[in-house]
Amino acid sequence: MAVFNIRCLALAVLVIAGIVISGGQVSAQSCQGDIQGLISQCAQYVGKSGPKTPPSQGCCTVVQKADVPCVCKSITKEVEQIISMEKVVYVAQYCGKTIPHGMKCGSYTVPMV
């Protein structure tokens, strides 16, 4: 069960990282590598439980290269039950990625500051 939660969290992280990194639209298949990298490097920073924690350099490296629009299109309701979209935005901003206000990622809309 813990392995399932970690994998779901990793998938959510990948989707979020894609949102943060890029503005171009790409098919979901072309951002699979972004999602896998986000899962492996950033999952622990975007889970629903626990406080916001500054991400690692490895996580930031993946976030900075991710195709955000592609990843956002891949976010499902199931993923949103596992990750905190607020934490995703926090991680992206911490890593120097700007996510436009009003951008839709899954069912989440990035709020105005």
TrEMBL record:
One Pfam short name: LTP_2
Protein's name in the database: Bifunctional inhibitor/plant lipid transfer protein/seed storage helical domain-containing protein
PANTHER family: BIFUNCTIONAL INHIBITOR/LIPID-TRANSFER PROTEIN/SEED STORAGE 2S ALBUMIN SUPERFAMILY PROTEIN (PTHR33286), OS01G0800600 PROTEIN (PTHR33286:SF1)
Signal peptide range in chain numbering: 1-28
Protein species of origin: Tetracentron sinense
Domain called Bifunctional inhibitor/plant lipid transfer protein/seed storage helical: residue spans: 11-105
Keywords: Signal
Domain of life: Eukaryota
Keyword Signal tagged: yes
